[in-house]
Amino acid sequence: MRKMSLTPAHIARVHRVVADEPAAAGPMHTDADYAARVSDILASHPAPDRPTGLFAYGSLIWKPEIPHTAETRARVHGWHRSFCLRQVRYRGTPAFPGLMMALDRGGSCTGVLYTLPEADLPGQLDRLFRREFTVKPITNMPRWITVDVGGQRQPALAFVMNRASANYAKGLTPEAVADVLARSCGHVGSGAEYLFNTVSHLEAKGIHDTGLWALQRLVADRIDARAD
Hints:
Helix content: 25-40%
Order of helices and strands: HHHEHEEHEEHEEHH
CATH architecture: Roll
Strand order of the largest sheet: 1-3-2-4-5
Mean pLDDT: 95
Number of domains: 1
Number of strands: 7
CATH class: Alpha Beta
Radius of gyration: 17 Å
Strand content: 25-35%
Distance between the termini: 31 Å
């Protein structure tokens, strides 16, 4: 596996203890909201007679959250990984917002397709949705997309960026993203840690994302250049 420039030592320099500020993020989804989202996504299932697939492109690769019965590499066209989701909680604060990845329109990317167990699918999706989005209006939207697995196309659930959200950070350069990730930290950890985990787990699965690889080098350089 390639040797990353970004290391645990870099992450330790960015990490700090941060108090959670849930009210700063905005109004939260309720139990009824999550139940409605689960109902809607199941009602629109494009292949309800087949096992449900979940496309993972970021943190779901290293923290799947729900069980799966199989996993395989898959590619999506028309969507790409992007640090376009601005956050004032979790890996950022109101004083220094962080950035997390979402699937944004355009391009393509390779990730992992999980096959979800058929037992209690509504309950598993409820748990997954509560992890993926919390505030209103929704930022990381669940929707069905088409994935390519070895030349075979099939539907899968994915989380994509809501471009109408006020938290959509459009058109940031890699340098601008690196500036944020080299400093941002929230109560669950830093942006640098999030990037490190994503890149290292992609590499371990034989998936080399050239954009993320260049980004982790930029983040490491910025941390190294700091005097603190």
